[in-house]
Design a protein that fits this description.
By secondary structure, the chain is mainly beta. It has a single domain (2-165), classed as Porin (Beta Barrel). It is 13% helix and 58% strand. The chain is built from 1 helix and 8 strands, in the order αββββββββ. It has one helix at residues 2-22, and strands spanning 28-39, 44-56, 61-70, 82-91, 100-113, 119-133, 138-148, 154-165. It has an 8-stranded antiparallel β-barrel with strand order 1-2-3-4-5-6-7-8. Strand 1 (28-39) and strand 2 form a beta hairpin. The protein is globular and about 45 Å long.
């Protein structure tokens, strides 16, 4: 599992740096979120942690790969485990002015979940997010999302996020 996470992070981070070097005026930031999600129309309740790397392409567009993990009880062997990889594109309709960034986004998602049986699927992300800068380097925000998957499952939830401009 640890190797999968490391490989996934490398696959996500490398393209972002390539995009960032092509667009010289773009900014990069790292966002970490904690929140909850329901899977299968509320049948499964999960506490999630999200790790997102954002590459600002312009004042209106951002590319943001992310990894989401469930925060499970490490002492229970039958605890629910979720791994999710996302590649999203965001539009800031009111322009990202570096103070307040309201954005709407979407993208592709892949998840793997182990309860009651191991299953995985590809799907889409629909996201509404708002972040507010505390100072030049740090910001906080909230994210609401919905994810329909091709195996007819769905997920929705809310995350509180904190980030740092790199």
């Amino acid at each position: 599992m640890c190797r999968k996470i490391i490989v996934s992070l490398c696959l996500i981070i490398c393209p972002v740096f390539v995009v960032n070097t092509q667009a010289r005026d773009s900014d990069t930031d790292l966002r970490i979120g904690l929140g909850f999600s329901t899977l299968n129309q509320g049948n499964v309740f999960l506490v999630l942690s999200e790790y997102e790397l954002d590459a600002k392409l312009s004042d209106y567009f951002t590319v943001a790969p992310s990894i989401v993990l469930s925060v499970a009880d490490k002492w229970k062997s039958d605890s629910e485990k979720l791994f999710q990889a996302n590649m999203n594109v965001f539009l800031s309709p009111f322009r990202n002015n570096r103070r307040n960034d309201f954005r709407i986004g979407g993208g592709l998602s892949f998840y793997k979940f182990n309860q009651p049986v191991i299953r995985s699927a590809f799907g889409f992300n629909l996201i509404v997010e708002d972040s507010y800068s505390i100072n030049d380097r740090f910001f906080i925000g909230v994210k609401a999302f919905m994810q329909p998957y091709f195996n007819r499952e769905s997920s929705s939830g809310v995350l509180l996020k904190a980030g740092i401009n790199l």
